[in-house]
Amino acid sequence: MKLPFAGRLLAIAVLSSLALVTPLSQAVADEKPKVALVMKSLANEFFLTMEDGAKAYQKEHASEFDLVSNGIKDETDSGNQIRIVEQMIVSGVNALVIAPADSKALVPVVKKAMDAGITVVNIDNRLDPEVLKSKNLSVPFVGPDNREGARLVGDYLAKQKLKAGDAVAIIEGVSTTTNAQQRTAGFKDAMAAAQVKVVSVQSGDWEIAKGNAVAASMLNAHPEIKALLAGNDSMALGAVSAVKAAGKTGQVQVVGYDNIKAIKPMLADGRVLATAEQYADKQAVFGIEAALKMLKGEKPEVNADNVIQTPVELVTTP
């Protein structure tokens, strides 16, 4: 049967509409969530390992999500990290997995992301719980017990090389970060238990050069120091150089935290006594997994403190 002219026009319009709707619906169905991983300094081997782990995981799960990763140059540059997060908001990412450079300063931009409908998961360095609470935000944290990890390293140092009354110094990370504070607390716990005196605590900003400068200053001001406890391995590398320059290799012990590749030769020859492994590659993956689960409307398995605990272990050999 041949349709009248008006009927043919209507049929063509309907078919054209279907042709337009079907691909669009399929595109929506096929759309993958975009996850942004925002880290601290990519000059730090720890965060390069984290990024590598995240990229490898995305490659294995390419059909499930897309990944964009970013990092800042200077670990103290919270302003630039804030700008990166703002760029991720504008680009329309679905989830943000962030290792904040500052535990308090990043909270407002995290709120901005969440207000824009972006799912946020916090890794590595915890956002300040009180500041989050003041803004009525709930952000799960994925990471290790930094205090416990540092205590393990400090206990080993004390048992192997120190005696009651000895003097030590702590090279802290960026002092406004929760993980730096917790590692310093863990080192202090171990030293107090061993009746060892902490004669100085100064920030090395997580960096080799600053760690070196701080270590040199400590050794000059306190020649009685028997050990330098560094909040990460980058600062420990700087401390090793300072100890060598002071002619005290073997007399002043150095410990670190992170178990980066650059520290392994020093563990082998004794320039570094111990460090802590907190599995950088897995932290990012655990964070991404939590974000993907939340995007599906599911709740990640957190403890009463809204934390997904990841492992941390003492390392004494390469």
Into which percent range does the helicity of residues fall? Answer: 40-55%
Kindly report the name of the CATH homologous superfamily of the largest domain: Response regulator
**In percent terms, what proportion of residues is strand?**
15-25%
The appropriate CATH architecture of the largest domain is 3-Layer(aba) Sandwich
What is the CATH class name of the largest domain?
Answer: Alpha Beta
Largest sheet: 6 strands, parallel
Shape: elongated
Indicate the radius of gyration in whole angstroms.
25 Å
Number of helical regions: 11
Taking pLDDT < 50 over at least 5 consecutive residues as the criterion, the unreliable ranges are 1-29
Would you mind describing this structure in some detail?
There is one protein chain. With 318 residues, this protein is an alpha/beta fold. It folds into two domains: 32-144 and 280-311, Rossmann fold, CATH 3.40.50.2300; 146-277, 3-Layer(aba) Sandwich (Rossmann fold). The chain is built from eleven helices and twelve strands. Strand 3, helix 4 (107-115) and strand 4 form a beta-alpha-beta unit. Helix 6 packs parallel to helix 7 (178-193). Residues 1-29 have low confidence and may be disordered.
The gist of it:
The protein is an alpha/beta fold and 318 residues long.
Characteristic key phrases:
6-stranded parallel beta sheet, Rossmann fold, 318 residues, elongated, alpha/beta, 2 domains
Q: Secondary-structure blueprint of this entry?
A:
Layout lengths: L4 H26 L3 E8 L3 H16 L5 E7 L5 H14 L3 E4 L8 H9 L3 E5 L5 H6 L6 E3 L2 H16 L5 E6 L5 H16 L3 E7 L4 H14 L3 E6 L2 H13 L7 E3 L8 H6 L5 E3 L2 H16 L11 E3 L3 E3 L3
Parallel strand pairs: 1-2, 1-3, 3-4, 4-5, 5-11, 6-7, 6-8, 8-9
Antiparallel strand pairs: 10-12
Helix pairs in contact: 2-11, 3-4, 6-7, 8-9
